[in-house]
Amino acid sequence: MRHLARECAGALASLILLTIAGCAAYHPSPLPAAPDLARVPTLTLPAAQIHVPGLAPHAIPAGGLDEVTVMTLAVLNNPDLKAARLQAGVASAQVLRAGLLPDPHFDAGFASSALNYGGMLSLSQDIQSILMRGAAQAAARASAKQVDLNILWHEIQVAERARELFIQETADWQLRQVLGSNQTLLQENYRRDETAMERGDTTAGVAAADLTLAADADTAVRQLETELNQTRHELNALLGIQPDVQLHLIGTAQLKPLSKAEFNQAVSALPHRRADLLALQAGYQSQEETLRRAILGQFPGLSAGVNLERDPVEGVNAFGPEVTLTLPVFNRNRGQIAVERATRAVLRQQYQARLDSSVSQVDEVWRASQIMAGQLRDLDRQLPVLEQTAATAEQSFREDNLNAALYVTTRSAFLAKETEAIRLRASLENARSALSTLLGLPFGAS
Predict the structure, then answer these.
(1) Residues 299 and 325: beta-carbon distance below 8 Å
(2) For residue 38, is it within any domain?
(3) For the ranges 20-29, 174-183, 335-344, which has the lowest average pLDDT?
């Protein structure tokens, strides 16, 4: 027995040493002390390796940043997305954990009498955990899929927001030119009023009214400059670029309107295509597996092993199998089963609510885009006529065939409609961009 005990002790010591050798080591990872923002927009991957849904590999143009480049840079370099992608590593680790077999359980004891030495050695394995391993792995894999789909949905939303900001900043620069022209027009008109007042050719009331118009034009320009500053900083933050960098945007948004048939087809395919709905489906499947595991837990818990024992008084050796069985008399895992069933019901209703609200939301955005498209068509028909009228009025004013008040009124009317058209076009493009995202369409299909 002593010889056997020494051999077992040696084997146990070797096993402990091997286990310690395979253990993970701790290494500190301090928090960053400075911002990690780029000075120049760059791709962190070669263009050929970039995979953004619906966007083909796209290098940065030499003349500036176009719509596709802005969206690609946002998906690859956005700081929040970089953090979100690390969640995939957590999910993968959870899959690994679910697939690992439970460690065996070793027990040892020592006893002695006046004449003999004795003790016990036992080695057992939890069988129930092995039987439930398949359900645990399936739940973890579905949960990891949910994490991946949530990251994809986050990427899509970041790309869509980048496109909205691209549309907004492009429109704001167009507005800056139009509002600047109106500001100059009204300031010049008021200066003419001042000269006319000195000559006694106009009244203080007329000059005061024109001064109010000029002041309103100044206010509009200042408000637009504030909006431009806000849009620029939000876009830079989205792209992971330092806030003082001035991006040069080129081109326009490439958004195609959807026909009624295309829209209806996209709505029908919504549950099979939109990433957040697919993520909820994966989460529900994970819960199904978790419930199945809880149901398996109601059956008798089983552990099996071997036991070696020596009586210290009689000096008799005993060796044989050992089985531990948990009798499902009182608990039967009923509480956990009830919790998992209730959780499944909650997830099912949450999915239904998201699907219902999604269908309602896409219909609202679709109809809004149709209304705005009709309004823009009317404006596009009016603008050439107003532009020609304003040009004729300006020519007549330069030739002293038209008074300043009528010229300014005609010119301001055209600039106001041009401003309205720029804002409406930006709103329509943003609505179409949002509709594409809400329908789960690839970016290249919108």
Answers:
(1) no
(2) no
(3) 20-29
